Amino acid sequence: MTENGKTLVIVESPAKAKTINKILGKDYKVAASVGHIIDLPKTKLGVDIENGFSPKYSVIPGKQKIVKELKQAAKGASDILLATDPDREGEAIAYHIYNQIRKVNPRIQRIEFNAITRPAVQKAIENPRDIDENRVQAQQARRVLDRIVGYQVSPILWKTVYRGLSAGRVQSVALRLICEREVEIENFRPVEYWNVTAHLKTPEAEEFFAKLIKIKDKTLDPRKFRIGSKEEAETHYRNLQNAKYVVSNLIKKKVKKKPPPPFITSTLQQDASRRFRMGTSRIMRIAQQLYEGIDLGPAGNVGLITYMRTDSTRISPEAISGIREYIAGSYGSEYLPAKPNVYRSKKSAQDAHEAIRPAYVSTDYEPRKIKRYLTAEQFKLYELIWSRFLACQMKPAEAEKTTIDITAGNYLFQATGEVITFRGFLQAYRESEENSAGKPEDGADKNIPKKIQKGAVLKLIELLLKQQFTKPAPRYSESTLVKTLDRLGIGRPSTYAQIISTLFKRKYAEREERSIKPTELGRTVNEILVKNFPRLFDVKFTAALEDELDKIEQNETSYLDALGNFYGPFEQTLNDISGKVKEIKSSLQKKSDIVCDLCGRPMVVKWGRNGRFLACSGFPECKNTRPLEEPAPPKESDEVCPKCGSPMLVKRGRFGEFLACSNYPKCKTTMPISTGVPCPEEGCEGTIVQRQSRKGKIFYSCSEYPKCKFALWNRPVARACPSCSFPLLEEKVSRNGDYSLQCPQCKQKVMVEAE
């Protein structure tokens, strides 16, 4: 219970409460609601459509105790400040808390801050306000829209595929993008083309490579004008063997590479996903921890970054002043532009709060200085945000770009290169691999001769012919999907991670290496939704709905008008589809060549909770069913059953492959597959065995688990570390395919090729 006279501050998270409590001191009591306390009921629609789309909110199951504690704390408070997150969702949480405690203590106001720092929090306390009803209405409209779509479209999927599927308003549009890209890939027909590269030498004996770009003034393009066959390439090869190679043009010019803007939610997710191979949900979870506060030892809990859900590149004047002072002191005035760099946010940005940046820019909070207090993932993300923010207020990088044109009869070759002459913002930040192709590198460009001059006659050392084929657009990665959703205006910063995680959770999509691939279930769901709700799950329509929500917040339209305009056409579509359910379900059933072994009628492929299966077309008279694919037959192994001595077989189950006794069902012994590598833990007599996590990922752990908890993600090799003598090494494969062994203890790497 709050002591009399104290101001009660209510936030969502206990971690955030701890950080703010440290800032405010003894005259304040900080409590946490632990997220939402009120929501629509899970088991029913919860929206009175006939009466102005009125939501029927209730306390979330399990949150009754928290509501009771908040009411109790409110009784003894002099004032109450609702300090939930500074966005629509945070406003809605504050609104629901207000409605729960106002009868106990009506002295309630709302505060918001973009960073959990002493100046930001104190400034917010000095400027309290009432709850923003428009912002609450905009969030409520989103919640109600999603509920109406989910609860009225999902049953169509239950009746046509199987019960339990969902049709989210925004997630289904993301699924559509993924499925359409997959169809594009499948329908793509590669086109053959040949590249010709000349290995040349200058009169000064400098060697370089130039690529053929034109033939008889026609520019080579794989999809338009190309060398399309080996025979054609060899004809050009013969023509070029005796040609005279002359430098027909030489252009050198200075170019500038501007620094990137500070992070917003979408660009943070894209960059971190590319660099660290993290999922978007994980990125946002770590960012939330950095925002809410990290225990920095003697300094206590400190919020390290500003609010991580934003679509604005705006930076506060105070932050600009601090960063410019830091750059001048740490990098030198030559890296500081005369005026601060200003970045425009996109037109659809709400611009509610500034860009993602470090909460404090000083030597005390440099990433390396506080690294010991952060987890490895927290450090990576904090360092990335830190370096990007520094870069955005530094001078551009400067380079010298050289273009060499070489004429060989009717053929034109070209060599290009760039050399950095001033690093500028690159001192602080380098773009991730996916964005850096073709960008200037440090030092001399090896492909550009230093002494070459226009008119020089070159010697041909070798002509290189390379066959290639055009490629389709790649599958989306989490990074590129976020980029596309952001560009199209689908969803908002706070929704991207949830959209993607829901697709995986519902098994509509799966990861294949770093790409997102639609599952057969996902493609089936998408087909039903797009065919029957073409307007609802249209990209432009979904983006327009986001604009409508923005208009509610800006008081340009009302909650009732926005919902009403949506629901009329939607209800008509639902009515039209209600009579087509059998037709839709029938269209999903595919004939097979398999005959029912009970009644002789043909079997058809149907959908069920566990995927597709074969069912007799004579249903309901004949209820015979079979798996669509017979399980793979067990494989023999070299292991012997420890109980009965029978051979053990390799079988596949829910969690991957395992060993099972061939004498089943008389003997039901099962065991994981052994790697044959002894457990390295002192005194343990177990061996390392292969296991599979519930999420399907292979790992390796001791056979004596839970007594021994030694585990690895990579396959072990029975070889001692040459550096620290640890009894085993683990296999590692780098991004470029290099195979090596690494010690789990000292991290010493041993390249296998060097052995």
Name given to the CATH architecture of the largest domain: Orthogonal Bundle
Number of domains: 6
Strand order of the main beta sheet, please? 9-10-16-15-12-17
Strand-pairing-aware structural class: alpha+beta
- CATH class of the largest domain, named Mainly Alpha
Largest sheet: 6 strands, antiparallel, barrel
Mean pLDDT rating: 88
Number of helices: 19
Helix content: 25-40%
CATH fold annotation of the largest domain: Topoisomerase I, domain 2
Form type: globular
Q: What is the strand tally?
A: 35
CATH homologous superfamily label of the largest domain: Topoisomerase I, domain 2
Strand content bin: 15-25%
Separation of termini? Answer: 68 Å
Rg, alpha carbons: 32 Å
Summarize the structure.
This protein is an alpha+beta fold and 755 residues long. The strands form ten sheets. Strands 9-10-16-15-12-17 form a six-stranded antiparallel barrel. It has a four-stranded parallel sheet with strand order 2-1-7-8, sandwiched between helices. The protein has a four-stranded antiparallel sheet with strand order 20-21-22-23.
